[in-house]
Design goal:
251 residues, alpha/beta, 7-stranded parallel β-sheet, 8 helices, binds NADP nicotinamide-adenine-dinucleotide phosphate
Length: 251
């Protein structure tokens, strides 16, 4: 096994938000990081932020793009499947198209990327697959059936990988944040403002009012847990879903 400075990490959905914070944290920890996304301008800003980050365009729902990307990437030690999309609607108003869009990114994207790296990790007997799921992967929620189903699928995928790799130097785990301060949550807040006429500050307070954490999570707090799971000394943690909600859900 090589030292952490030589490790190669791939982070999907790293053009902004949580993925960007993860890419920057792993780069600061000395890894060689490949930041994936579709927005070339935003990706350029991320790779410009650290000499340890290179960016690559890759739509995680496109099998050919994913296979091609990993064929050209050095052997991957740490995969963070973070790319995700969210939306909200009553089940009776959820279209098949919207349902499939969320499954394609949040579940199938995680599957395609995990499948691409797992064989190599097992051959080298070291690897970390870390999926950014959600508290919506732990329980149901009103008006988010498509998102919730996709995050349960991502956690189910991670747990099954964990069973396949048990006893090797590879682990697979997921992280379950509540609302995080990113553009995804800004869209949710904008929705509340639109529907209720509340101020942005009140809408943000309403989102977290009855939660144990009582505030939005910061992207860097998610990145911290990724770095912890990626560490050499975390090899006994496998098949777990780590919830970052301050204590509401206790697994
Ligand atoms: P965000 O700010 O909206 O960023 C989403 C990222 O996913 C972007 O980098 C986007 O990149 C990428 N992405 C979307 N579709 C993609 C596709 N088809 N192929 C490749 N990349 C794609 O979201 P975020 O808040 O950082 O969320 C990151 C992850 O955390 C998601 O899985 C989300 O479900 C999860 N999460 C978020 C929250 C929250 O409150 N924000 C809470 C729990 C879990 P491009 O636009 O460049 O393609």
């Amino acid at each position: 096994m090589t030292g952490p400075e030589a490790r190669v990490a791939v982070v999907t959905g790293a053009s902004r938000g949580i993925g960007r914070a993860i890419a920057q944290r792993l780069a600061a920890d000395g890894m060689q990081v490949f930041a994936l996304g579709r927005d070339v301008t935003a990706l350029g800003e991320v790779s410009d932020s650290s000499p340890n980050i290179e960016s690559r365009v890759c739509d995680v729902t496109d099998e050919d793009q994913v296979v091609g990307l990993f064929a050209e990437t050095p052997p991957v030690d740490v995969l963070v499947t973070n790319a995700g999309v969210a939306s909200s609607a009553k089940l009776t108003r959820t279209t098949l198209e919207e349902w499939e869009r969320l499954q394609a990114v949040n579940a199938t994207g995680a599957f395609l990327c995990s499948r691409a790296v797992l064989g190599g990790m097992l051959e080298r007997d070291w690897g970390r697959i870390i999926t950014i799921a959600s508290v919506a992967g732990q329980r149901g929620g009103k008006y988010i059936a498509a998102y919730t189903a996709s995050k349960h699928a991502a956690i189910g995928l991670t747990r099954s990988i964990a069973m396949e790799v048990a006893g090797s130097g590879v682990t697979a785990n997921s992280i379950c944040p509540p609302y995080v301060r990113t553009e995804m949550t800004a869209a949710t807040i904008a929705n509340i403002v639109d529907r209720t006429g509340m101020t942005e500050a009140d809408a943000e307070a309403a989102l977290t009012a009855d939660t144990a954490l009582g505030r939005l999570l910061e992207p860097e707090e998610v990145a911290h847990v990724v770095a912890f799971l990626a560490n050499d000394n975390s090899g006994a943690i496998n098949g777990q879903s780590i919830v970052l909600d301050g204590g509401d859900i206790q697994t």
